[in-house]
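Per your request, structure below.
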């Protein structure tokens, strides 16, 4: 029995808890797609540069208050191992991460035994301008890595050539999270990588865009969000979504 709050329906389970807590509750081989946007760990000394001895070397950055201060690269590596455990054979992990640290994420996925690693790019059609002498890339794109658990045939349906997905940033009044992603983008990605009767997990739910996208495309959803404010706002967003759309074909068990 969980000790934290859970918003639960036939198709949704959103936990007011950390990824580590929720992953420990899930059965092996129960998830079709993990699609998530973890903290980029860019607001503190964090250890992104991997040396030849396999250890992570630290450097300091300060780019945003949205990063969880207590979250580390070692935490993320452990969570990726748990992602693999709960994925079905052939299941997919799609993880957005800081563009400068994709090689570190790639190393972690390979180290945990994932296969077929590739890059997905969100090309923002309405990027917010950046005025910085230190940043030579605009804020016009975000990157993710996609990888598959061995042992089964991966689901890849109508993926875009070169893995580039052009969509606008959401600037609506219902935006309440600093890293809130594009809903149409997530709907398309779920359609590519998750079976029509499937379950999507987001270990860092934030604004529950993954959950809304899963419901809109007929998939079931499990999410983890430890922040009480984001959890409550996400619950309301999911409730509104469920009123407007047909039920998922699969649903969640008890």
């Amino acid at each position: 029995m969980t000790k934290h709050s859970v918003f639960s329906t036939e198709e949704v389970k959103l936990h007011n808890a950390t990824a580590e807590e929720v992953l420990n509750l899930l059965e092996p081989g129960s998830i079709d797609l993990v699609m998530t946007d973890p903290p980029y760990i860019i607001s503190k000394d964090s250890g992104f540069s991997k040396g030849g001895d396999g250890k992570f070397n630290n450097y300091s950055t300060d780019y945003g208050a949205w990063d969880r201060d207590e979250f580390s690269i070692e935490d993320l590596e452990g969570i990726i191992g748990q992602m693999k455990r709960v994925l079905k054979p052939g299941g997919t992990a799609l993880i957005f991460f800081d563009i400068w640290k994709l090689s570190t994420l790639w190393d972690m996925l390979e180290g945990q035994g994932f296969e077929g690693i590739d890059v997905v790019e969100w090309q923002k059609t309405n990027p917010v301008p950046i005025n910085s002498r230190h940043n030579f890339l605009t804020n016009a794109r975000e990157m993710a890595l996609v990888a598959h658990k061995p042992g089964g045939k991966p689901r890849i349906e109508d993926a875009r050539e070169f893995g580039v997905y052009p969509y606008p940033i959401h600037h609506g009044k219902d935006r309440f999270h600093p890293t809130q992603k594009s809903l149409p983008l997530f709907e398309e990605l779920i359609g590519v990588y998750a079976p029509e009767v499937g379950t999507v997990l987001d270990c860092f739910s934030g604004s529950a865009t993954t959950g809304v996208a899963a419901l809109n495309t007929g998939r079931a959803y499990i999410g983890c969000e430890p922040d009480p404010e984001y959890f409550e706002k996400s619950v309301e967003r999911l409730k509104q979504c469920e009123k407007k759309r047909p039920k998922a074909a699969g649903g969640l068990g008890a």
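DSSP finds six helices and eleven strands in the chain.

Regards,
D.
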